[in-house]
Amino acid sequence: MRVHVVIRYIGSILVFIAAFMLASAGVSMLNDYDSAFYPLLLSSFMTALLGIFPMIFVERADEIKSKEGYVIVVGSWLVACIVGMFPYLIWGGEFTLINAWFESVSGFTTTGASILNDIEFLPHGLLFWRASSAWIGGIGVVMFALVVLPSMGRSRQMLYNVELSTIAKDNFHYRSKVIIRILSSVYIGLTIITTLLLKYSGMRWFDAVTHAMSACSTCGFSTKNASMAFFDSPIIEIIMMGAMTLASIHFGILYATITRRRNNIFRSEVVRTFIGMLTVISLIIAVSLYSSGTYDSLSESLRHAAFQVVSVTTTSGFATADTNTWSSLAIVLLVFCSVVCGCAGSTSGGMKVDRVLMAFKVIHNRMKVQQHPNAIIRTKVDGMVQDDSILSLVMSFIVAYIALVLIGTILYTTFGTDLMTGFTASISCISNVGPGFGEVGSMNNFSTLPAVLKFGSTVLMLVGRLEIFGFIQLFFISSWK
Amino acid sequence: MLKIFGKLFGINSIKRRISIAFLSIMLLLCFSGAISLLELERVSHDTEQILLASKQNVDIAGEMITALKEQDDAMIHMAVMGRTFSDINTYGVKCEESISRLYEASQLAHRRMLNTDTPTATDSLVLFTNRINGLANDFLSGNVLRSVAEILAIDSTSTYSSRKWYIESYKPEYMHLSEEITKYMTGSQSTLGPDVNRLSHTARRAVTPVFISLVVMFVAMLMLYYFLHVYFIRPVQRINRNLGDYLSFRIPFEKDASCRDELATLRERIIMLIDKLR
Description:
The complex is a heterodimer.
Chain A: H1 3-30, H2 37-57, H3 66-84, H4 86-91, H5 97-108, H6 124-139, H7 141-148, H8 155-163, H9 176-200, H10 205-216, H11 234-247, H12 251-258, H13 269-291, H14 298-313, H15 328-340, H16 353-371, E1 380-381, E2 384-385, H17 388-414, H18 419-430, H19 451-465, H20 469-472
Antiparallel strand pairs in A: 1-2
Chain B: H1 2-9, H2 14-80, H3 85-114, H4 123-140, H5 143-154, H6 162-186, H7 192-249, H8 261-277
């Protein structure tokens, strides 16, 4: 493996991140040079320096090997999280070393969990950086860099292959260069439209931009302590729900719908399952909340239930209500949503509807084979026969996901949290949802957890964001042939 | 990107590459130093504010202690030692003065706390001041002496006296207020608490940029060392070894060595020279 080549590509991604830090410093400047200006400027300079250094010395490689590609992708995520905590650390306040690391990882992995007790105390520049890190992470640090940096050349194909999930590639019927363009145009377009809609529904420009970035990246970072409950506006909630839902659908399918192609939203089995799941669970929770007397009217129950279901399923984690006070049925269903989450090829995390759908079909087919031993039954999703290797990968992913949730729960409970908090925090971190239940509920945060659990949570977030195997494979890189 | 940098800064030579690397490190040093200086200036400003606030606290507490001491002195003369009427008048004036000084000082302390995070912190101080002032006013208006006379008239065997009133009623209040004044001067309810918090916050911000810059520079230096080794030291060593091998044993000069910049030119020129010598 050529270390200098790996360093060079990670360097180019750092330059790209430095540009966002500089933009955040610009926001700080527009707000009368608030206290985040110098921290952001210095962080931008340091990040750019770390990035430009290898770019000065190492020339672009014509081709990179798969091993190098993996190290570049995983390394880019890790290094992005490390430099991402510079502005927080320099600014100070509640940001100790572990808190800054937590907030940075939570942003880049679009988890949206926070250690901040007083978000509104942060200056605008830092809030913008917080939203930016989520926005960069939403589409993938490397994928974003591939869009912006033309110098990637032929290496683009390799990095794209490593960064994009295997099951997400199925719905893209284009060359990698075109796919990257589609991903970026859908993502940027969705963010702009959401910003404008939020602005015209009564938000200030700053809040509209940061909330749009956060919703489209399905991160869930808000600029308010009470999250979306602060705005208390059904129109804003509907816009946010729309943005979160669209951001959780395969970007290739969204593009096909816009350009009136065949494989659009209305024909996709996965999207139908996803929307159906959101609708049914919202209705069940609404009825449960109304019948348990949590809310006075059915409409209010439906409003809160729908928002929370969409927020959790899309792995955003915005909150309009304290879900800790909801009925047991509602909590169980929300935990189910935290596991399944959105569609592959979107910004959402978790197990993904595609995988769950495939797993159900595999089980269904298995039962059929038991009844008809000689039958050859293929598993189809969206009319396409799924390869056995893909199905095996899906089942392995589900097993690995469950194993990690158990390991996470053991870790949390070892350090003194209750079972509810430990179990839901593990799921929330691996699925990059943000809030769980108990001590880490929708109206609480991770600030009370001991440092070791905060660090453990960040590891789970990274593992979840890199789709488990992407992260684990890095530790066996030396044995690759 | 590199091409753009190359065009902008002309970083195609060893000298320029290394110059830019060192310049970047220098700039980082200067920049983080400047930010630390700015923050240190803020620390200095905050320290001045804290010292000023501390001095004001001590002044108020000193004024209260002096006034309380004078009031107590007057009370001892009037209630315990039982001075004559003219003496009572002299000490009465002193006592009235101390009542007013205590009241004003406690109100000033209270007003200063209103703008802090703990506006109710001087409530006890004000309460005990009002209570001791009430007792002193009671004595000065003759209520205490009258009640003593009334008690003695009803029960001639009673030992109740103005001295006993002083020990049982006035002295405990005196002790409470002294304690509150001491707390105000040294305890967390003074205005110092929030100021000290702010100072520690600013002090950390003054140190962190330098610390992070040092870490970044350390990483940059490691990269610089690595790149210098890979792109400059190792090729020079190889050229040198190849040239030595050629001169000693006529082993052909290596043509496909991966060299860049001036080193590539040097290698080509050596090859040309060897070809000419042949």
